[in-house]
Automatic annotation (TrEMBL):
Stored InterPro entries: NA-bd_OB-fold, Prisomal_replication_PriB
HAMAP family: PriB (MF_00720)
Organism per entry: Rubrivivax benzoatilyticus
NCBIfam families assigned to the protein according to its UniProt record, in alphabetical order: PriB_gamma
Primary role: Involved in the restart of stalled replication forks, which reloads the replicative helicase on sites other than the origin of replication; the PriA-PriB pathway is the major replication restart pathway. During primosome assembly it facilitates complex formation between PriA and DnaT on DNA; stabilizes PriA on DNA. Stimulates the DNA unwinding activity of PriA helicase.
Pfam families per the UniProt record, alphabetical: SSB_1
Protein's recorded name: Replication restart protein PriB
Transmembrane segments: none
């Protein structure tokens, strides 16, 4: 199963573009900060992740989400075309707060 749910802040949003198939797409950057327990000890986690949203429904929601807003993003991870690294493909979003 390849499913990721991440509470994060929208920190960057590229311009709306279209895939070769004609689907709307948005490139995003998300920032996550939390504290988790690992091996019985608390650990602070802070990361930025590159994300992509494809499709009219999800891009419509994300274009209205203000930069700096917190939301719960759902989707999956996929390798970049060059095989170096990965990207979070967003398929759902629920604003928080």
């Amino acid at each position: 199963m390849n499913r990721l749910v991440l509470s994060a802040q929208l920190v960057e949003r590229g311009a709306l573009r279209y895939t070769p198939a004609g689907l709307p797409a948005l490139d995003l950057s998300l920032k996550h900060e939390s504290e988790v327990v690992e091996n019985g000890a608390p650990r602070k986690v802070s990361l930025e992740i590159r994300a992509l949203a494809i499709g009219a429904d999800i891009t419509a929601v994300l274009t209205t989400l203000a930069l700096g807003s917190n939301a719960e993003f759902g989707g999956f991870l996929a390798a970049l075309r060059n095989g170096r690294g990965m990207r979070f493909h967003i398929t759902s979003v629920a604003p928080l707060g």
